[in-house]
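Supplementary notes for students who missed Thursday's class. We covered one full example, reproduced here. Read the sequence, then the structure, then the short commentary at the end.
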Amino acid sequence: MNKKPICAILYDFDSTLSPTDMQAYGFIPQMGMTPAEFWGRTGEFSQKTGCEKILSYLYTMLSVAKEKNIKVTREFLADCGRGIQFFPGVTTWFSRINEYGEKYGVKVEHYLVSSGNKEIVEGCSIAKEFKAIYGCEYIFDEVTGEAIWPKLAINYTQKTQYFFRISKGAIDATDDNAVNQKSPTRRIPYGNIVYIGDGMTDIPSMVIVKNNGGRSIAVYPKGKEDKVGSLYDDGRVNFVSVADYSAGKRLEKFLHLVIQSIAVRQSMDSLETADQPK
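Structure (token representation):
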């Protein structure tokens, strides 16, 4: 009996599912700052110290909170995620795509691959929709519960490893052996993987997915097509769409076709490997 094929959809978060940076909804306002002030300070720290930009923002979050006498705990960060807003249709997108996959005999799995804070994402309304959430994380003091050091930092090129992890089924981010071992079979073929991002910082992941037979999609806010036009013209992505995840819109129609193509390919493979008539 043939196993049901799996379609894995990998998402960026900021400006892909949500209109702006996740920190802007809860964390930055609680620091009494504007996004421009927070990210400006992060950039200054990075330039002054030579610290990598993702590590710089993780440091700046703790530094600013300390100045404000605010304890950055796992609970505090999760609370900062509760007010995150999303592009149209996002909150119902996952169940609709899952149901469509079931209709064609395809299991759909959703994965988040973000350079944002995993602990903030875990507090938002769609966190439960993901099979795995990959994002920057802190280590928390066992006594005080406060964040003390980065546990995991994911920059733009490091995102690409999750394409291979997810394909192999090695979804534990600390399992270096499984992701590097040669595997004759893959839980999810490369061609069954979709990546959805929004811009320049997603290019390494977009190219990896597209060049290995998957589908890369660039989304943009309504009226700002220029943000992603060059990505399509330069062959970085297969498809561009306004960031509207609502039923019947362009983005959903494309994903429907992707699911249908996976189902057709599965049927063709089954026929090709079946016993031929003598």
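Commentary. The chain has eleven helices and seven strands. The beta strands are 6-11, 107-117, 132-140, 147-152, 193-197, 215-220, 239-242. If anything here is unclear, bring it to office hours.
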